[in-house]
Design a protein that fits this description.
This protein has seven helices and four strands. It is α+β, with helices and mostly antiparallel strands. Helix 2 crosses helix 4 (88-96).
Length: 159
């Protein structure tokens, strides 16, 4: 009897994995880590990107946005409750007051659902698709931990 229970458990796990894969195909997820040296503007970049995607903005170099294929974006619930939410609203208030946000001291993340038209299908023919975008903000000091002992990034990247 225990063997039958184990078989059902294995089947349940397999079906769940298959359902997750189908969901990923229907609504892909892109996880983007924003990292750089301390005080390089990672938080400002992330805040500006979220604001532009959710409320419209000028992103002339970002072709999908400039060509009108991005229909908009909305904030979504956190993917992982153990990771703090990126405080985009707080950072917007700080920047609106013409001040600089405090330095990032811990990892935080924010999830967006971006509605877009693919290059192949315009709004009328293919409808809108959705991409889940997870933005992860890392403290700048963490980047220093990845610098090679000889200090040569180029050597590390090409070897």
């Amino acid at each position: 009897m225990a063997r039958v229970g184990a078989m059902f458990e294995e089947a349940r796990i397999g079906l769940r994995a298959m359902a997750d894969r189908i969901e990923d195909l229907a609504r892909p997820t892109l996880r983007l880590g924003v990292t750089g040296l301390s005080r390089s503007g990672k938080t400002v970049f992330t805040t500006a990107l979220v604001e532009a995607l959710t409320h419209g903005g000028r992103l002339p170099v970002f072709e999908p946005f400039a060509s009108g294929r991005i229909a908009g974006a909305t904030l979504e619930p956190q993917p992982d409750d153990a990771v703090p939410r990126f405080p985009v609203e707080e950072h917007l208030r700080t920047l609106s007051a013409r001040d600089w946000p405090h330095s990032t001291s811990r990892v935080s993340e924010l999830r967006l659902a971006v509605r877009y038209a693919s290059r192949r299908g315009a709004f009328g023919r293919g409808g809108l698709r959705s991409l889940t975008l997870d933005l992860v903000d890392y403290p700048g000091e963490w980047l220093l931990d990845t610098i090679p002992a000889n200090g040569c990034w180029t050597c590390r990247c090409w070897t």
